[in-house]
Amino acid sequence: MDIDIRFDTQAAAASLLQGEEAYRERLIETLTRMSDDAHRQNRLHIFVDVAVWNLAGIAHMYGARGTGQIVRRFGEFLLTFEERIQAEREAEREREAGRKPQ
Q1: Are 59 and 70 in contact (CB under 8 A)?
Q2: Does the structure show a pLDDT above 80 at 26?
Q3: Which site among 39, 41, 43, 72 is 20 to 30 Å from 14 CA-CA?
Q4: End-to-end CA distance of the chain
């Protein structure tokens, strides 16, 4: 009896990505819930302090390169938020002018 022990790299990669995506979703859900709770309790400053402390620890651990990547991603996320807000504003102006938003 032959046993096929070949490693299906595509299936493994897909499984890894699914695992990473599931982990990302759990983190988003958990951190969003915690942030919302802190906001409701008027303790958002505590949440921010703890989050920034953890990011600082990661930056310290990975040095200048890690810090640069954190700052770069932070900037990208801020731009994404701003682009979404701008798109929503433009869509609202289109609706107000009687045009269908694109």
Answers
A1: yes
A2: yes
A3: 72
A4: 61
